[in-house]
């Protein structure tokens, strides 16, 4: 069994701590491999330097396998050091290369601080997702959040709400639905995915009384894709899509903007949500939270989302065969 590789993320955040906690929880279940500076791991961590992924399976039950990289300066929990930025980026790039080469089952990325990466290394990407797409040479990828009993995909992501109607084009919606549909089959083993699609406006526009995006943008795309055989419902009023009975009727909810998708999943499974990038040629997951500087180094970090992200990466890799 190939390991899931973990890129270290921001050393001053909780990334090193949750990586070690996840290893402790999973070491008898699956092989892992961490890329980073072992000096940044919590004191007393049982770790062992390895030369490559092939050594991880034998080492994992006894120690955290580490591709050791010298970051030059210590970790100060809660205080990002821009000097670490180039090595943090290198860890992501190295993990992605291992995943794309098939040497590991997938890549799980610990949280980063985009401002620190920009300050220390001129990082020009909004986040992991866009950087990994560039590394893989993929023009369009999709962000999914997966939790216990719910998967959601926002069509538009990190833009002001005022810009959503103009950004929501038929082309963007169709690309998102096609990538999501293909990923559910390939990565989640669903031969006929059921996709629920929200409207943009209250009550899904209520036949044009509360907006026209449903009739002008969303419905024509859904009708065209249904004619190709995709199982799509909608556009649905977002306020009735997420109660238990509704969630049982679909495999993923595709929503029109960030909070429309993320509020439900963070309500249903706040601690265990996983960020998944769909459309890459390799598996990539991440815990659905940030660096948590306020609790870094205190021993209070919750590794639930990291554990779920590692398990999901292994499951997706297995689905891909």
TrEMBL record:
Binding site for a divalent metal cation: 158, 203, 258
Family of this protein: Belongs to the PdxA family.
One Gene Ontology molecular-function label: magnesium ion binding
Phylogenetic placement of the source organism: Bacteria, Pseudomonadati, Pseudomonadota, Alphaproteobacteria, Rhodobacterales
InterPro entries, sorted: PdxA, PdxA_fam
Record note on cofactor: Binds 1 divalent metal cation per subunit. Can use ions such as Zn(2+), Mg(2+) or Co(2+).
EC number: 1.1.1.262
Function: Catalyzes the NAD(P)-dependent oxidation of 4-(phosphooxy)-L-threonine (HTP) into 2-amino-3-oxo-4-(phosphooxy)butyric acid which spontaneously decarboxylates to form 3-amino-2-oxopropyl phosphate (AHAP).
Pfam families reported in the protein's UniProt record: PdxA (PF04166)
Gene behind this protein: pdxA
Organism: Pseudoroseicyclus aestuarii
Cofactor entry: Zn(2+); Mg(2+); Co(2+)
Source domain of life: Bacteria
GO cellular component: cytoplasm
Sequence positions that bind substrate: 128-129, 266, 275, 284
Other facts noted in the record for this chain: The active site is located at the dimer interface.
Keywords: Cobalt, Cytoplasm, Magnesium, Metal-binding, NAD, NADP, Oxidoreductase, Pyridoxine biosynthesis, Zinc
Subcellular location(s) per record: Cytoplasm
Summary of subunit composition and partner proteins: Homodimer.
This protein's pathway: Cofactor biosynthesis; pyridoxine 5'-phosphate biosynthesis; pyridoxine 5'-phosphate from D-erythrose 4-phosphate: step 4/5
Record-given protein name: 4-hydroxythreonine-4-phosphate dehydrogenase
NCBIfam families noted in UniProt: pdxA, PRK05312.1
Catalysed reactions, semicolon-separated: 4-(phosphooxy)-L-threonine + NAD(+) = 3-amino-2-oxopropyl phosphate + CO2 + NADH
Any GO BP: pyridoxine biosynthetic process
